[in-house]
Amino acid sequence: MNEHPLYLDGNALAGPLGEVFTTDPTTAWRLCPACRLPATLAQLHVYGPEPGLTARCPGCAAVALRVVTQPGHLWLQLGSGAGAFRFSRPHDRVRNPG
Amino acid sequence: MGSLSPGFHGRTRAFEGRLPPGQYPTESFPVLSAGPTPHVPTDRWSFTVTTERGETRSWTWDEMMALPQEEPTVDIHCVTRWSKFDTRWRGVSLDVFLDEVDSSSEHVVAESFDGYTTNLPREDVTGGKAWLAHAYDGYALSPDHGGPARLVVPHLYFWKSAKWIKGIILTPDDEPGFWESAGYHGYGDPWREQRYWSD
Amino acid sequence: MHGWRRARLTERTRQTATGRTLRLDVPEWPGHLPGQHVDIRLTADDGYQAVRSYSLAAPAGAGAGSIELGVQATSGGEVSPYLADDLPLGAEVEARGPLGGWFVWTPRESGPLLLVAGGSGIVPLMAMVRARLASASDEPCTLLYSVRSPAEVWYAEELDAAAHRIRVRLLHTRVAPDGSARPAGRIGGPDLRDLPPSAEGRCYVCGPTGFVEHVGELLLTTGYAPGRIRTERFG
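Predict the joint structure of the above. Result:
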């Protein structure tokens, strides 16, 4: 019996999400809406890979996103209350805020 | 070099009659997880049926264990392509619970202690086709396999057999669950290979 | 962003009883950074496909258009035993990558470098070691490498040869070599003594999930800030 089933890092999401993102998604950043822990996508705890990848907050295990890969399709679900991911815009770094 | 990965066969093999399309037989019992394993002590466990009007009927562990017990031996089929033959369970037919409430809903959502959900037609969890199982192969069901109690609906893909079940909600409409809302089939018949939405 | 490219097996090297490094030719490979990984896809005759992630063991550059992977065959596994022993030399699989921008280190980063590997978790860290050795950097670099026994050490000769430029500390968990000052046992607080100052450097940890959890806690106890630790777990 395994008390803590095996999980991976969000690093494991780089391949599946890389199919649909134009920048590396694993450095995207979020603040968990449930426990306020900040984390990059690479730091999330990822369960799976089958039947899908479930990425959870490393602090409180709230679901951050889910990815299901099928022949011809990729499903990405952020779910309600899952928070937002902040992506760097590689071509927009020179502009100052405000 | 024409073909890719020559000599790679995956695990698919033919198995007359009992093996749905695209499945391979396994002797082991793989554990798939979508999150940390909840540990629910039986003295704090309860099972609740909720109707579409919000009425509830609950059973404690001892009350559930006092209900008529059945011992189904069934084949199970996981959407990740393994099938396991002659699995032995002990538990209570869902008919016993659903007969206790007044509902005209044609759909149910099974809900687990870890927040997992899965949707099923009511007729697929009644008529002796589904169980609340608390023992596997003669032993109390371990947490990694869904203990203290899980749903067992062997004629559908095994993601429908929710682990760590805490209740059944009768719903007027079909409400996609955890995997069904992320691309998996709403019904999940292994013999028709209903894996994904489009199948 | 990433398509599947054909990758042809050109070389297979035995590292341990179950560990192999594979060199694959990938035409138009765009290069990668130390720590990144690739996905490998296998296709059976009936169309069934399986995808798994493997770390890149060498920095890009040495052989452009060629990548080196580390594969640990797990008994009963669907993909790793095939890659480790059955995929014929000259045959092709598909590769997607490079992947991951978080678990990455390049010699441009200043400050001491601490690498902590558990078992085949050495593979992506070896890419960092090799990049560090190929650079002019003289920042302190330490590799703590936890293995069950001396027979389980990947890249043994190369690490021996590197010992004058980086500090390599083998930590045996089950069987220590004869005459070893450190008894066999799990990595613990004493193994983290005399490391480079924790405030300035970066720390990379790779290994099985339990190992990474344990080392992560040790590092935090030792005074490493969470923001300085990057981890990669494998199942």
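The interface with chain A takes residues 1-2, 37-39, 51, 53, 96-97, 99-103, 209-210, 230-235 of chain C (CB under 8 Å).
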